[in-house]
Amino acid sequence: MAHRLNAAVAQLGPIHLADSRTSVVRRLMALLREAHGRGARFVVFPELALTTFFPRWWMTDQAEIDRFFEREMPNIETRPLFDLARELGVGFYLGYAELTEENGVVRHYNTAILVERDGRIVGRYRKIHLPGHAEHLPDAPFQHLEKRYFDIGNLGFKVWRAYDAVVGMCICNDRRWPETWRVMGLQGAEIMALGYNTPILNIHHREPEHLRMFHHLLSLQAGAYQNAAWVLAAAKCGAEDGFGMVGGSAIVAPTGEIAAQALSEDNEVIAVSLDLDLGDYLRRTVFNFAKHRRIEHYGLITERTGARTEV
Ligand code: ING
Quick check: pTM over 0.90? Predict the structure, then answer.
């Protein structure tokens, strides 16, 4: 009997600056109900799923910045989502801005959590690859200040046993780095979940807009195939206060094929019955890591940060 998990990706349309957490949680709960109605027992929500993508805004007042962060999870606004999940027996991945204190120091992370079907938080990931910049770019149409507002994640890329599967997590820009996928693949991830907020416009270089979707899907499909795992990716998309973000939420099979993809740039659920044995033949053959990898030749990957030509 095939080892299966009915899963869904819940894409979010725009969240505007003026939208309250309560209104957003209502949308998340509606998406959770729809996913449950479609048989899903695991649902992936986007990165920073409780607020607008605030790194687009230049802010200097820390109290203003901290208003976008959650000091505890669940909290009074998100508790209804956790309660509904437990009532329906559905687990979820949720991205949000985490404010916490470590050894007396306040930290700000771009975080994702794995919540089991009984409502318990069983996994936490803090975004490692923070894109963008830390300084103000006054001439740019918008900012991308993740390097200013977030600390670099300190939990590594892990996997957890959840929903009767082995599940890894990453966030957004992480998907562009093959190291992300391989570290989870080396831990036997069967499912790799991520949320993303990807602006349509490249503020650093004139680039055809279609490349945003191409690079997004290329990253997902390569990560899935080269590690023989299912990839579930949830966008927050559409025009947030007029600033466009790409959709393209997708469920990608271990073969690298797109099993389902969102059609809109609004709230939308896509669902697939994941055959968790589908990647087995790839892990036994072409991506039998133990048989084929030659780590004695890979040293530069962890010894050298930037590229350097020495010839
Ligand atoms: N957003 C974008 C992402 O990686 C980006 C930033 C877009 C970087 C395109 C490079 C190219 O999808 C986040 N939030 O990481």
Answer: yes
